[in-house]
Predict the 3D structure of the following.
Amino acid sequence: MNYYITTDEKLRELVRTLAEQKWNIISADKQGTRFMYINDGKDLTVDAKARPTKVSAKQFVFPKSEPLFFFKKEHDDLKLIDPQAVQQKTVLFGAKPCDAAGLPIMEKLFNWDYKDEFFNKRVENTVVIGMACDYTDEYCFCTSVGLAPDSEKGSDVFLVPGADNHYVVKEVTPKGAAFIAEFKAIFSEAAQGDIKAVSRTQPAPEKKFNVDEVKNWLDGHFESEYWSKAGETCLGCAQCAFVCPVCHCFDIVDENCAADCGRRVKNWDACQFGLFTKHASGHNPRETQPDRYRQRVSHKFKYYQDKFGETLCTGCGRCSRNCAVGIDIAEIVANIPM
Amino acid sequence: MENIYKPELVEIIDIIDETPDIKTFKLQFRNQDIQNEFNFLAGQFAEYSVFGEGECTFCIASSPTRRDYLECSFKGAGKVTNAMRRLKKGDVMGLRGPYGNNFPVDSMKGKNVVFIAGGIGLAPVRCVIWNVLDLKEQFKDITIIYGARTVADLVYKRELEEWKNMPGVKTVVTVDPGGETPDWKGEVGFVPTIVEKTAPVAENTVAVICGPPIMIKYTMPVLTKLGFTDENVITTLENRMKCGLGKCGRCNVGNTYVCKDGPVFTYEQLKQLPEEY
């Protein structure tokens, strides 16, 4: 693996160059609320000490609402028009390990058997510049789901903060290497050890549970008293799914723009909504909120593991940090009566 | 870019009013090449769309042995199905599919087959019935037990008559108590009772069952009593779906994607799933 060095100022210069070359440039906003498109080096936020943004970066590969095709009625005929293929090269700056890891996790779902090229094209066109994290609060639990503040999973290029506004830059994937080669004025070559990474100022999140033990318990406890307790306060608002870097359930609906044209879109949806599974007959396999909360926990820590060999969680803590009634998924999982 | 969500255009070539609220559409692809190449197996489903209203999921109700068209039967229940009710012959719809697994018709060959259906649950079963009847010499005795709430709610009435008159096919049609008309000549009683009364032989027999959850719940013990083993009872789960492609997460029952791993399951497989369907 090759190592390089860069600085805050150089990264801002990179943003200016990328903007001139019409790249899509994504960075967290200054308030730490969300990732957004920027066009100016001064708007770049690469901050290892920042709290994970309120909303994850997943919308750039799996948008909240994405047109699948357009339809137009002409006389007696009907035309279906594909949306323009996503071609624009994109760079995502400053993804924390708990954000970057979401991409390869979701990639499995979008590619088993049928391939969702909407997702794939976006991932293919995106260079993820991940960044070691130096933030921990009571909601963080990346270390409980096999990640860590310095995990490179999902990153193409990985930044580790060093002394004096320097970064140690690692090329993680061939795509990352190509990116560094393309912008070699920004990244000076270095040998490992040329520059010391700054040690974290925050302790890594403590390990709150063991995913294997949790999975073992879930394997045998679809029916358990624990679920009525775990899900009893949930309001079913599904903010947890919307801020999550890996929740990927969606709805497909039609939107009309006029009597004779419209589009079909894929919209984020969530298993916490009562309507999610409700049949036309009125029958609902998941009738109550605790049923739906059980689904959320089981999908993350058992079903996805069964099906795709991954935990459907990066331990970012967003769902818990933002929950209106204070449900903390790590606490729920850690308190399973094993 | 390959777009797995984009349907093909189909034209409604015929509409049959089955009951006051159930219709059958006979559909043909606009593009004749697609019609010629379209292959499916009994039990597979498709996503049907009315542009501007949305998509919904039903099984393909016609048999794969009949290749010139596709049929689906539906009840006006929600936004899309009610929009479908307003469509006329010659109108254009969208269709994606076929999706999911299928009934093991090949391994049913050389055996007796008992079909048990309730209400619109006859639609997915009808696909296998015609598949089996079109290749009848390869199967042993066929029994069809079908029930609906009232005489007016029976679907495929013309075909029920046709099946009744076929040699080697025993067709028993029933309506719920109170649902009979003065001139009703069929059975009166709930499906489980009529299955018990008809008492099909379990030996060398496969049972295909589809209907409301309550019907299946009370018919299963009857089948067990008659000697049917769980692996010889096959059903199809009609979960709510959106994508049909194993992505949208809606039809999951535990770690199973009904749209990919199903919709056809043996009762033995069904018992392995969490009770959430």
Notes: DSSP finds eleven helices and twelve strands in chain A. Residues 3-334 of chain A form one domain. The longest helix of chain A spans residues 289-308.
